[in-house]
């Protein structure tokens, strides 16, 4: 069954209704266009120097989901979801800096002189970052885009669950992921067959501190 999804009425609707769903309707299929639209919206998230180090591997063929299943610690949401989006971080995203900033000039978002200044600074700084620093940057930006991806899916009445619990080494081997890409998480996406259960949150006064160091 293929469904046409629609966006929810308000931001609060889909923020408050988002759940981590682990049982999906296996008859629901998402089209390539629907998934690409969700990713296009998610990619509006901010990133370090606008380098957009996120990459997405879409796994929607059942035989590949079955191959992924043991790699993902036999978590069954991998099998029943319409697709699994693997979020990867590109450690060599600097190679796209000229393309990104040239496009900004062409769209009138910045003058040529500003672009040249930005590119020169990035080309001088980023190659000297350690692999760990580049990995941390990719992980930070990957978190931003993943949250936006989940909310964009929820706005269409779809469900997701972020999964960090998988064997990243075996994943890279199974799907021939080059070393430049760091697997960050798996994100099953589809239509819930069983709703995710609500969870509690610490009260705001327990997690917020005003104008002083954390106490306790």
UniProtKB/TrEMBL annotation:
This protein's name: Nitroreductase
Entry keyword set: Oxidoreductase
Membrane in keyword set: no
Any one GO MF annotation of this record: oxidoreductase activity
Domain of life: Bacteria
Matching InterPro entries: Nitroreductase (IPR029479), Nitroreductase-like (IPR000415)
Pfam families noted in UniProt: Nitroreductase
Domain Nitroreductase: 16-191
Similarity comment text for this entry: Belongs to the nitroreductase family.
């Amino acid at each position: 069954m293929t469904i046409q999804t629609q966006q929810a009425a308000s931001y609060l609707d889909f923020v408050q209704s988002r759940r981590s769903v682990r049982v999906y309707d296996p008859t629901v299929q998402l089209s390539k266009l629907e998934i690409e639209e969700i990713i296009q919206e998610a990619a509006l998230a901010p990133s370090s120097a606008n380098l957009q180090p996120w990459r997405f591997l879409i796994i929607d063929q059942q035989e590949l989901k079955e191959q992924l299943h043991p790699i993902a610690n036999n978590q069954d949401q991998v099998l029943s979801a319409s697709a699994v989006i693997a979020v990867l971080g590109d450690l060599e995203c600097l190679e796209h800096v000229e393309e990104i900033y040239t496009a900004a000039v062409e769209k009138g978002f910045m003058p040529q002189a500003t672009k040249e200044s930005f590119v020169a600074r990035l080309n001088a700084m980023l190659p000297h970052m350690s692999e760990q620093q580049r990995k941390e940057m990719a992980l930070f930006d990957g978190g931003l885009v993943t949250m936006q991806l989940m909310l964009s899916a929820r706005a269409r009445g779809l469900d997701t669950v972020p999964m960090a619990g998988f064997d990243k080494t075996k994943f890279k081997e199974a799907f021939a992921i080059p070393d430049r890409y760091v697997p960050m998480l798996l994100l099953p996406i589809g239509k819930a067959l069983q709703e995710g259960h609500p969870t509690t949150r610490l009260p705001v006064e327990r997690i917020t501190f005003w104008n002083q160091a954390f106490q306790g």
